[in-house]
């Protein structure tokens, strides 16, 4: 129940979230998916959270690890961090703090990026969740915002539809869905003229220089 509640809350914060309920599933899913952040309950069944943490660190997985535990003892925090976790949050916690910690860890998991992304008159602030073009503020859905953010981060490079699916949707999305194409169409319409998103046949999308 806690895992589902956290996942629902993070999705409302425009994050793509996958959920598993025991250590075996956690190790399996992280073996073929890359995540910016892994929110890891220390008291997982099947394979304990400590062992999952050791395995992820041993694999040199790129994702940052936020460990959750029912104990707030200093000794437990030290033990969790000594396993290689990047951050530690005792339960119960305030959800807004969890969101802030996940965002902070996500920023550390990739290369540094400017606090505000700008290109072709588009100005996107990832932290305030605001975007404008030529001074005109735009109202985007969470998916449209994520797609535009990925295109801006690519700095004119091509971003594949598979990459956009990975960043904006969870693992349950049909990989053969046309959802990226539909989202791209509505995003183009909201951005207005002149058009700035180019379709690169067979490769993906990019923001024109």
From TrEMBL:
This is Response regulator transcription factor. Keywords: DNA-binding, Phosphoprotein. CDD domains: trans_reg_C. The modification 4-aspartylphosphate is found at residue 41. The keyword DNA-binding applies. It holds the Pfam family Trans_reg_C. Gene3D superfamilies: 3.40.50.2300, 6.10.250.690, Winged helix-like DNA-binding domain superfamily/Winged helix DNA-binding domain.
């Amino acid at each position: 129940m806690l895992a589902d509640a956290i996942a629902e809350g993070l999705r409302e914060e425009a994050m793509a979230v996958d959920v598993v309920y025991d250590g075996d599933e956690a190790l399996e899913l992280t073996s073929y998916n890359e995540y910016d952040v892994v929110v890891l309950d220390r008291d997982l069944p099947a394979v304990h959270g400590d062992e999952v943490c050791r395995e992820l660190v041993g694999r040199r997985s790129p994702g940052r690890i936020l460990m959750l535990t029912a104990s707030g003892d200093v000794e437990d925090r030290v033990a969790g961090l000594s396993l290689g976790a990047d951050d530690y949050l005792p339960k119960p916690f305030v959800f807004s703090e969890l969101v802030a910690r996940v965002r902070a860890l996500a920023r550390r998991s990739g290369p540094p990026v400017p606090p505000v992304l700008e290109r072709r008159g588009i100005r996107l602030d990832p932290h305030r969740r605001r975007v404008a073009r030529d001074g005109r503020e735009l109202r985007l859905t969470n998916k449209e915002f994520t797609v535009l953010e990925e295109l801006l981060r690519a700095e004119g490079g091509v971003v594949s539809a598979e990459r956009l699916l990975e960043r904006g949707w969870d693992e349950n999305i049909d990989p053969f869905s046309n959802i990226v194409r539909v989202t791209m169409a509505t995003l183009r319409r909201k951005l207005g003229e002149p058009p700035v998103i180019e379709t690169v046949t067979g490769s993906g999308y990019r923001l024109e220089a």
